Amino acid sequence: MMRLINSFTYPFIFVSLLWIIMIFQVISGISLADLGVFPRTLIGLRGIVLMPLIHANYFHLWSNTFPLIILGASLNYFYPEVSGRTWIIIYLLTGILVWLFARPDVHIGASGVIYGLAAFLFFGGLFRKDNRLKAISLLILIYYGGIFWGVFPIDPHISWEGHLFGAFSGIFAAFIYRHKGSKPKKHDWETAENIHHDNGLPHISDYFELKP
Fold it and tell me: What predicted TM-score, i.e. pTM, was given to this entire model?
């Protein structure tokens, strides 16, 4: 139970920081949008770190709040051995790719991180031979499969590049960490040895010499 509770800690802290920044913008009347990624410009490099922290308005941030908490907690709970490194890869690689390849406009918001987390959780289960994690992949597909339409340039006011490169970053992290962390649990009936020595006890055939 404590592990489940702890898995929500860092996502909740991160989202709280986003709301503090949003409230500051509203109260002060200062827009921080210019601190986002502006591709292929020197000043736009700061957005690699700052882009996920800045949102256009309350609705923008609200739409990202619960996916960040749920997907972030899922990453921490099911992939504790690599969750920190995965988060860093998704966070930074998304911004780097947006800076390198996106259209020349300001890109802000944590949507890329959400796409990265969803892609990691989905493909992480597929890359590993673990039925439990495959079940998580199925749940991600059911609940968040629709968001992947966002990787296409449907709305010019939305950074679909951030979505696309976030998803790519998540798949990349899932691939490089496919052998990291806990291994699938083998049951007694799956091992050849236990066919003859169930629960460590000698089999009846050990007491008799079988003749042809």
Answer: 0.84
